[in-house]
Amino acid sequence: MQYREDDRQGVGKRNREALAPEDVTRYTGEVLDLFDLGALVADLPDGSVTALLCVERDPEACHRSLVAERLRAEHGLPVTNIRPV
User: How far from chain centre, in Å, is Cα 11?
Assistant: First the structure.
């Protein structure tokens, strides 16, 4: 779905500035809501630092932002977005 929107806008995933609202809804319902983030969080070593990586430059243009926001909101994990200069 997102690739279709990227094609419509004439952008590649590395140039994308945001996820399409429909893609956010579908990804959330079809992937994120079905995944047990609580089990993932429970398996993280105490005091560890974890990185979510992807090819998109901006977090707003990547599905990792949806995962990171849920980890922050539901599990209280700190989220820091690292952006290239």
Answer: 19
DSSP state of 45: P
User: Contact 67/60 with Cβ under 8 angstroms?
Assistant: no
What tokens appear for 63 in the block?
């599905």
47 vs 84: CA distance, rounded Å? 26
d(CA 13, CA 56): 6
pLDDT tens per residue across span 3-46: 665 556 566 655 667 788 888 999 999 999 999 999 999 999 99
CA distance 6 to 15: 9
Structure tokens at 72: 């922050």
pTM of the model: 0.76
| Residues 40/45/47/48 CA torsion (nearest 10 deg) | -70
